[in-house]
Design a protein that fits this description.
The structure is a homodimer of 135-residue chains. Chain A is built from 5 helices and 2 strands, in the order αααββαα. Chain A is mainly α and 135 residues long. Chain A has a single domain, classed as Winged helix-like DNA-binding domain superfamily/Winged helix DNA-binding domain (Arc Repressor Mutant, subunit A, Orthogonal Bundle), CATH 1.10.10. The first copy, chain A, has a two-stranded antiparallel sheet with strand order 1-2. In chain A, helix 1 crosses helix 2. At the A-B interface, helix 1 and helix 5 of A face helix 1 and helix 5 of B. Bound molecules: FE2/S2 (inorganic) cluster (2 copies). One FE2/S2 (inorganic) cluster binds next to helix 5 of chain A. The structure holds a DNA duplex (30 and 30 nucleotides).
Chain lengths: 135, 135
Amino acid sequence: MRLNSKSRYAVMALADMASFIDNKPVSLRDISLRQSISLQYLEQIFLRLKKNNIVKSIRGVKGGYVLTKDASTLKLSEIFSALDENVKTTGCDNNSKKGCNGRSTKCITHNLWDELDVHINAFFENKKLEDLIKN
Amino acid sequence: MRLNSKSRYAVMALADMASFIDNKPVSLRDISLRQSISLQYLEQIFLRLKKNNIVKSIRGVKGGYVLTKDASTLKLSEIFSALDENVKTTGCDNNSKKGCNGRSTKCITHNLWDELDVHINAFFENKKLEDLIKN
DNA sequence: ATATACCCGACTAAAATAGTCAAGTTTACG
DNA sequence: CGTAAACTTGACTATTTTAGTCGGGTATAT
Ligand code: FES
Ligand code: FES
């Protein structure tokens, strides 16, 4: 099981922002340099974060991004869902009655993977952005 | 985060075997039919399981596979590692001192992903094959 | 004016995934 | 003995996902 780089970078970038507590906007260029993440990749990521109201943008010179909520209330699960990075270990469509094998009942492992999803999501639900900057 | 089909099928197939408690060998053909998994894919999977001593094989007519240990002691983590399906959410080489960004120190999110790995692995470590057949 | 910084859609090389194919070997059973 | 059932093994492939890049915008402080 891997984590994709978009999510990893998103958390990294937001943690970077949060560690500079002055509420001036932070430019992606700065994050890019400090964290060694491609600027153009960051732009892609922040578009998503913005659309999902995790950051807001200020355009023009001296512009950048600011967090819309405090790092102490921002959950990792919010960040992940903003990037469509959802945990899904089942092989079937969870919204359907059908199983991963195409049959009309769920397979013998379905409940296990369901439990696993819950287990992993709990981690993201309980972690706040703040938790990783007070290090 | 997804789970690959090899691991999912491996657990499914082993659970199938474990639910027939008579200790006669179970043929892949039977598992294939009961669980709707491609026979040839199962062969590939069981090669791995055999090499890692999770099952043993009996060749020839009336042959098949049998579990080498009891379902009550077989941990999911053993199955996963047999298939090289390891949890790894960090972006860096954990054995190296270097960070995911190529620098000489670990990045600001490294400890978080490390914690996540531990969290997920704990699930596989605590789950036994038996847990999913007494349903 | 102009440089800084966000905005956004399209594109792509490389890797991973989810299998299939083909050609064996071994052994129970009639 | 012959044969079918079942394991063994390596190679191959189509598709999808990943991890970005490219290129052309628009807004605004100075
Ligand atoms: S994983 Fe949902 S039915 Fe198999
Ligand atoms: S994830 Fe290990 S250094 Fe970034």
